[in-house]
Amino acid sequence: MTVGNSSGKETSGAPGDFIIDPRDRILITGANGFIGTQVVRILAEYGFTNLVCLARPSGQSTALEEVIRKSGVAGIEIHRGNLLSREDCRAITEGVSVVYHLAAGRGVKSYPDAFLNSVVSTRNLVEACAEKKTIRRLVSVSSFTVYSNLELKSGAVLDETCAVDEQPELRGEAYCYAKVKQDEQVMELCRRRGIPYVIVRPGVVFGPGNRGLTQRVGIGTFGVFLHLGGSNRIPFTYVDNCAEAIVLAGLRKGVDGEIFNVVDDDLPTSREFLRLYKRHVRNFRSIPIPRPLSYSLCWLWERYSGWSEGQLPPVFNRRRWASDWKGNRYSNEKLKRLLGWKPRVPFAEGSRHYFDHERGT
Amino acid sequence: MPELRIGIVGCGRIADEHAAQIQRISGCTIVGVCDREELMAQQLADRFKVKGCYADFDEFLKKAQPHVVHITTPPQSHYELGKQALDAGCHVFMEKPFTVTADETVDLIRRAEQGNLKITVDHDEQFSHAALRLRQLIRGGYLGGPPVHMESYYCYDFGNQQYARALLGDRSHWVRRLPGQLLQNNISHGLARVAEYLQGESPAVTAHGFTSDFLKEMGETEIIDELRVILDDRRGCTAYFTFSSQMRPTLRHFRVYGPHNALIMDHDQQTLIRVKGSRFKSYLEKFIPPWNYARQYGSNSILNMKSFLRNDFHMKSGMKSLIEAFYRSIVEDKPVPIPYREILLTARMMDDIFAQLGRSFENTG
């Protein structure tokens, strides 16, 4: 069932099926981030009027303020705080029914920093929630990066039943390590403290505000763009679609303890997306790297990094290759079936917005 | 070398570097890691396969029984943790800055000496390949006598770094609570280079610092990110020290001028250039020296590539050399790689600089 909204878009919300009322208090951490602002916007569209938006003390919140202004909802507060402070966590969870936890240590190369800002902050938040008796659900936003495709065959479907990387420290990506540990923390602590939770794992979230090409398409590290994605489908989800999935994960009845992957319907191949990007944003030279070659290069890099005791850091390795460039198919069946989600913005429209924004910046 | 038991207290970003370099050194094992935040200790132990994981420092000292403790916590805790580690009979490898004040430095060194223990500070840049070559040349008399003048540049790039954003946005950030704030956490590398070659024990310090326009535009008024210092050891040797967040390129240079020749070291490029004091006749001065410099830069590049191919050019190779030298000094009971005089001198110069900056801020405030 779908309902209309002020933006004219069709949404997937069906209020009668929600665990809270429109006046219940909702906390959104990372609310001034790329996805967080859209979560706030969609919650307001759904008619929720009592929102607490946690923003970092140092972060700019121009986009969030604009979303709040446009929503016309008076009951949306911006709270400046830090999840590393237990006092801040206690203050922001006061009277809250649903928590959308989007804050994370993203784009950080240091493992301790990523861990601190993802895992320690999550622990503080969950502990603060546990002290309150009002929490009906915590939605923790994770990532596709946590999956290990190592044993998954090329072309096989990656869904919520797939294995999470058991040795994320070997991926060479601090973000992956932190997200795997964050998921573990949420599952263990929420179960122990009796807090209902849902984990949402978006694929590659794109849209205006998220700059550059995803590494699943390729990398420009060596001065020339190496196109590594080839004919792989890229697990894109447009930011509005992703935000709506997150919103629904916090509201729908009967999904406690579930994990949801978020990808859109009409996924382009890497080659198609790169062609569109070059046509609509900027043209540049790219070298296609066949899959066997990219695998061999990653294997060699991994071996050299190990042999040289990290003279070259292990940023390219077979685990990363499997995750980013092996080439799998993706499913959003569970998302549709249990949350009643459907992408409100088709890829063609979403990519147009994204390319326009990229061109402008 | 008998097996040394190593412990690390403080499991943030810099602890990763210590752990990675320690694990490259034979004859030592990390037996425990400790952090007040237990989860942070767990993540370090998890990634570096360390068995002992502690949230309490006393328990860590008692149960892990390390021979050497690496202290990689924020500087405010260096003194207290250093005292506890020394009292427990451990040698101490301290992350920079050594302590917050020179008095604390004096006390820690005194305690180490009284306990027949060793202590050092992570001035690893003085043990990079280029720095080791520079030291060898100076000891070999290349300058033609003691240094007459030195210039040390130590620049810092705020860029879009998360650290800078966190520092600027968080009024309670530990860096802000240091007497010298941002400077205190960064300038010791550049000052220690100078301290190594100053002759006197208490050089005259003249410091001038200010907040850059870049920070002012971000609403920052407290943090000084531009510093110029004149040092005079009163024995015929002077030095300029420059710390800047705004000049480009972001140099980490050390230039040392003797009575005959000079040396220029670039830490980032790992180059060391010899500058002859003698001059060529007439136009030859304009033809031959540039050629010589080109040749030297070429040689430096080849040397660096050779080191890389020999698998001896890690980004933190200086830290490994320093840690290895420190461990050797413990096992063989030899002098520590960084003389205590140098650590003390660096601490005194920092005290003087922050005192002067504090006064000038009070005057302008």
Element-by-element helix/strand order of chain B: EHEHEHEHEHEHEHHHEHEEEEEHHH
Overall average residue pLDDT of chain B = 94
Order of helices and strands of chain A: EHEHEHEHEEHEEEEEHEHEHHEHH
| Strand order across the largest sheet of chain B | 8-9-10-7-11-12-13
CATH class category of the largest domain in chain B: Alpha Beta
Using the alpha-carbon principal axes, give the shape of chain B.
globular
Q: What's the level 1 CATH class of one domain in chain A? A: Alpha Beta
Number of domains of chain B: 2
Q: What topology emerges from the helices and strands here?
A:
The complex is a heterodimer of chains A (361) and B (365).
Chain A: E1 25-29, H1 36-45, E2 51-55, H2 62-71, E3 76-80, H3 86-92, E4 96-101, H4 111-131, E5 137-141, E6 157-158, H5 174-193, E7 197-202, E8 204-206, E9 218-219, E10 225-227, E11 236-238, H6 239-251, E12 259-262, H7 270-280, E13 286-288, H8 291-307, H9 318-324, E14 329-330, H10 333-339, H11 347-360
Parallel strand pairs in A: 1-2, 1-4, 2-3, 4-5, 5-7, 6-14, 7-12, 8-11, 10-13
Antiparallel strand pairs in A: 9-10
Chain B: E1 4-9, H1 13-22, E2 28-34, H2 38-48, E3 52-54, H3 57-64, E4 68-71, H4 78-87, E5 91-94, H5 102-114, E6 119-121, H6 129-139, E7 149-155, H7 162-169, H8 181-186, H9 188-197, E8 204-210, H10 213-217, E9 226-232, E10 238-244, E11 253-257, E12 262-266, E13 271-275, H11 284-309, H12 317-331, H13 340-364
Parallel strand pairs in B: 1-2, 1-4, 2-3, 4-5, 5-6, 7-10
Antiparallel strand pairs in B: 7-11, 8-9, 9-10, 11-12, 12-13
